[in-house]
Family with sequence similarity 83 member E
Amino acid sequence: MSNTQEQSLNENIVFAPLTESSPDFLHCEEERYCVESLVSSGAEAFYTKLHQEQIGSFLSPSEVNQISSWAEDYHQSDAIQEDGNGEVEVGSNGEDFSGHYFPTESDTPAPCLELGWPERTIWMDMGQIHVYTNPPAEQAPSIREVLRRHLQGATKLIAVVTDKLSDNAVIGDLQNAASRGVPVYIILNKRSVEENCFSHWLQHPNIMVRVLGGKTYLTRDTKIVVGELKDNFVLVDLETVIFGSYSLSWTDAHLHRQLVTVLSGRAVESFDQEFRTLYAASLPIPDAWKTGKSSTSTYRQPPGLGGDGGHPEIPGQPSNST
């Protein structure tokens, strides 16, 4: 609970009025009324409510269409299901209601990291920072190359949070890492998995995949909208983190402009904590979202992918060996 929410429970607290120019201005009642109209009754009702409240549109046309298409009826019975291990699963409508307090869900123990989690590194220096772009700078490696070299060099842990995971070469690196005994944890954007199905190549004893959405918006007339998971970072051996706007897809590797930062040092601890927080909020993938292919299929190793589990150097980055 935020400090502001905690203070609001005190009837004697008097809050100073906020204006839109205040940095901490976030919630607006007029905007809330308009969004409720959009979620409950569609785009036309949203624009009508804007006119009634005498405020300008705060959503682009694409956002209006997106939110309207995501709106669903909320049925608590659909939201609460358990898998064979007694763990809460995504309901039939595929939504996560962890943004609200429902005892049947929030009182369920957080999932454990079944594959293990290494001890944190004690950092003796400030670490390093490297920035990579797509397309790459002159004589610099591509983002995809940097990412794949880190995945191929992992020995203790790979933890991935991404909105998209469809790059077959990266999936091959993850499966090869798992095959040499490296625990691989993956948190995917729930809606992307629901719409595109779950890759059977990620079904491996050393790979744990879960899904998570964004924040939950629940209206007074029991309509619900769940946002997206837009985090993108890869944690390797609790020593390095690669984060930025890069999604693990072919189009991001070949078509889109991207920027990532590669960090080592004490800042990695923040990503360690964030991953555990996201994992605790995540849910298993329902069987209905998985492809029908056999999980025993072997991934065909992409050309040039090393399988010796060594530590390849990252081009343009100093070696950490002493």
